[in-house]
Give the backbone structure.
Amino acid sequence: MKRIVILGGGTGGTLAANRLHRAYGDGARIVVVDRDDDHVYQPGLLFVPFGMADADDLVRSRPRQLADGIGYHRGEVERVDLEADRVHLADGTELGYDALVIATGARLMPEETEGLTGPGCRGHVDTFYDLDGAVGLASALAAFDGGKLVVNVIDLPVKCPVAPLEFCFLADWFFTERGIRDRVELTYVTPLDAAFTKPVAARTLEGILEAKGVELVTEFTTGEVDGADGRLVSFDGREVAFDQAVVVPLHGGASYVDRSPGLGDELGFVRADEHTLRSQVKDNIFVLGDAASVPTSKAGSVTHFEGEVLARNVGQFLDGRPLDASFDGHTNCFIESGFGKALLIDFNYDTEPLPGHYPADAGLPLLKESRLNHLGKLMFSWLYWHSLLPGRDLPGVSSAMPRAGKRFPEAARR
Amino acid sequence: MSTKVYAGTEVPVNEEGFFTDPALWREEMAPAIAADAGVGELGERHWQVLKFVRAEFAEKGTGPTVRVLGKTSGVPVKELYQLFPKGPAKLAARIAGIPKPRGCI
Ligand SMILES: Cc1cc2nc3c(=O)[nH]c(=O)nc-3n(C[C@H](O)[C@H](O)[C@H](O)COP(=O)(O)OP(=O)(O)OC[C@H]3O[C@@H](n4cnc5c(N)ncnc54)[C@H](O)[C@@H]3O)c2cc1C
């Protein structure tokens, strides 16, 4: 019987386990390892600060998302012994494997930025990237009655790179609803030279920031967050003042990756072939989701699309056949824009987000605000628990990026 | 696309001044590119970064980001900004004759 060990029981680990279990039945022994039992629906964290979601509703039991027959081990991964094909856990357990799937996601590293874990933090400085922070921000925003609110991405890569922009849009809506928008100065501070990495989408998103009166500060690499004095300081000496800062801390891979020589890159992400999702260190190690160093967004949708390819390729590998499934980098994100509307972007390694419709001409509008997209975003939470985590294919949504419905520029069509 | 003459050789560069053919770069060209990029005289610490960037490019096909530079080049991020004000990753790549770092998504 083949032994498959899956590190991480978040989005990727759970859906990969369920897919592999369905494919293999009792022919494989699958064990998922995670350090805790609380699975958080992370996209919901965006809504908590604005009172649009309740923190308790975002959390469910991890093991209960796994199909019967899949093992679950609660414990902290200490390191992977690449030579011996064994995982060491902090509680002393050792797990041998024929195939290892790494799905331990991205870690927040506020300690890497001066001042971010110092005095004044939590309160005037917070993040909505974890549950405690999101709840803290809900009280902070409820009490905020005017002043400078700054949203700052310290550096990339981050999970869901549009989420900080969504935060700005929702803040504009939130303060308008409360009747104090004219007393709030909103600023978005990014290390990029535009609002987003991809040019066509960046222009659209910058247009929305402008229309909503959100100031954009670009190429700002934050060296220090001074909570006491209320200012961000960049490495090149510029300053942005705030009364309330919403910060997205630096991200890195799980710390055991650093303790497993050869496994990860400088930031603790695991290098993998961007198409097969096999790691570049060893043939029997595969990676999916935020833990992977591949040139696409760190997003649940990506993780979901990767899952289909990964499950197929792990199976091929264990059966001694060539890997034949290939991931195209497909990413699909709803961008909440406030006032009951949202945009949708859909892209892959070769195609940047373009206008048009998804998945075909009659579908949801791309790169354009609409109520339909907002409903799509809200519905996603149900799909996440009932369809995506169980490892089912979502209706009409496939791993390969659809080309129908997109308006390609002339040059690309030729 | 236009061309520039550095150390007596004509090289093609893109709109932002980055080499489009990294193979044409030679160390003697660096001081003049630095001057074009608004970086003063190149000292030993600049060279430590430039050589590192060149080696990373040879190995990985792309230049490192500031954060990776700070972790691995032996020069901390704060100092990188003193050496290459306004964006060390971009400026070091330009002076080292490699394409603008792809960066992360
Ligand atoms: C605020 C916010 C909004 C988002 N919005 C969206 C959105 O709208 N759409 C979208 O597609 N995506 C969104 N995302 C991103 C999405 O949540 C992630 O990309 C997705 O969860 C990645 O899945 P993963 O399995 O790679 O990592 P995760 O789901 O984070 O799982 C990693 C797991 O590994 C475990 N782990 C880590 N290290 C260890 C260790 N040493 N030992 C044991 N266990 C360990 C962790 O406990 C965790 O359970 C958002 C994220 C955030 C933070």
Helices of chain A lie at 11-24, 131-143, 163-177, 199-211, 255-258, 300-318, 371-388, 410-413.
